[in-house]
Specification:
The protein is an alpha/beta fold. The protein is about 45% helix and about 15% strand. The N and C termini lie far apart (about 45 Å).
């Protein structure tokens, strides 16, 4: 339905900023000058700021809020937000523009995540994905000890040993040990940790969710997050855990692959700074658990309009996710490419060499670490459901907020001269777990509307 003499203009809303926006804009410009010009498609991208800013702009546009901009032709969207827009009947059916041969080029789980319509048709086009990795301040790790393994229990044990070791460096100051590890997304810890243990918290069928919150598995998660947080073995201080590594408050964290570029090059203290090296490792897996990692990252959705605009939008998305173009974007952003053939070190190296790209070592190491584990790793993203955003917030904040509050009380007791064992005693009991467990289950039920 396209005519090069009468090109279709498409607006794209996204949340890219800085180098990510620069890379996206460069690809859009290239598309407009080549394939777009040939077919009659002109694309213009607009950053809406943050993810939450973008979601607000979309909701305002759908609701016809006074002063709101018109709906864009395409916009970046996570599954929960896309599901909400789909329920309003505002998304195009992308299955009408893609045949099975084209879909087969993409990683299966990425396509499945986008099938959020009631009839199973595609609504979210995968454009750039991410998972989680663990990054470590190698410089300060080596004087402490050799690695103890990357099981979740191993990280907890290493964190306790690190706290005790740092405490011993100042024998005249009791209980001043430092935290070793932190997490950027606690919700992912719940979703993926439970999956590793064989449990899916949110079981979704036909858009309806059933909660699955067994006590035994949740106890393992409580024991390997809340307990070390309360005792000061884990920590969370700044906006992101990479900030905490920069200030020397943490040595390691688990975060998104796209956060690798923010891992600091030096530790900055009040009395000076010093350079640090880094290690990139697989995100921790529970002992005896399956190697499952989170599948995350927004895709692109197309607003329901007319065949001409919808078709043009899909043509742009297919071009953007071609192996070479997608890897060029990933080299800057730290996002994983979405086509099967692109997720390999050899393809990454080929594109870097042919395009003469300069790739930050941390981003390169992050991508190659994930590519090297793709065969043995299963990526997981929970299915969308009504009130899914509210339910995820319970996972993100319920235990984390309690841990922060109780850690503050422990620190107050330490300041009064109590030992760590005495100060934390009341918080790490089975009774304490049972109280939290009951409140957590009730909060989840309220969030999903049970």
């Amino acid at each position: 339905p396209l005519d090069p003499k009468d090109p279709v203009s498409l607006t794209v809303w996204h949340y890219y900023n800085g180098s990510q926006q620069t890379a996206f804009d460069a690809l859009v410009e290239e598309f407009n000058d080549t394939v777009g010009q040939e077919k009659g498609i002109y694309v213009e991208g607009f950053s809406q700021g943050s993810v939450s800013d973008l979601e607000t702009a979309v909701r305002d546009a759908i609701g016809g809020k006074v002063g709101a901009d018109a709906m864009p032709d395409l916009f970046s969207s996570y599954a929960d937000t896309a599901y909400e827009v789909e329920q309003a009947g505002a998304l195009a059916n992308l299955s009408e523009y893609l045949d099975e041969e084209e879909l087969a080029k993409y990683v299966d789980s990425y396509i499945e995540e986008g099938r959020i319509a009631a009839d199973g048709s595609l609504r979210i086009f995968p454009t750039a994905k991410s998972t989680e990795i663990m990054m470590l301040n190698k410089t300060d790790w080596e004087p402490f000890a050799s690695a103890t393994g990357t099981t979740m229990e191993g990280v907890t044990a290493a964190a306790e040993a690190y706290y005790e070791w740092t405490d011993s460096q100042t024998p005249d100051v009791p209980e001043d040990g430092r935290a070793f590890y932190g997490r950027d997304a606690v919700a992912n810890y719940f979703l993926i940790g439970m999956q590793q243990l064989g449990v899916e918290i949110f079981q979704v069928e036909n858009g309806k969710v059933t909660l699955n919150v067994p006590r035994e598995e949740l106890h393992r998660l409580w024991e390997n997050y809340y307990v070390p947080m309360v005792k000061g073995y884990f920590g969370a201080y700044g906006s992101f855990r990479s900030d905490d590594v920069k200030t020397g408050d943490l040595l390691a964290y688990t975060g998104s692959t796209s956060s690798a570029m923010y891992f600091p090059n030096q530790v900055e203290l009040e009395d000076g700074s010093y350079p640090i090296d880094y290690l990139v490792m697989a995100a921790p897996v529970f002992r005896g658990g399956r190697h499952i990692a989170v599948q995350q990252g927004a895709g692109m959705v197309v607003s329901k309009s007319d065949a001409r605009h919808e078709y043009a939008a899909v043509e742009f998305l297919k071009w953007f996710t071609e192996t070479e173009n997608n890897l060029r974007f990933g080299c800057v952003s730290g996002y994983l490419p979405v086509r099967r053939e692109a997720a390999s070190v050899s393809e990454l190296d080929r594109v870097i060499e042919e395009q003469g790209l300069e790739v930050a070592p941390k981003t390169y190491d992050c991508l190659t670490t994930v590519f090297g584990q793709m065969e043995d790793m299963t990526l997981y993203a929970n299915k969308s459901f009504e009130n899914g955003t509210a339910a995820r917030k319970v996972l993100e904040y319920h235990l984390a907020d309690k841990a922060a509050e109780d850690r503050a009380a422990v620190e107050e007791a330490l300041a009064q001269g109590k030992s760590l064992e005495e100060a934390a005693a009341d918080y790490v009991t089975e009774e304490s777990f049972e109280v939290w467990y009951g409140a957590f289950c009730e909060a989840l039920k309220q969030a999903v509307g049970e």
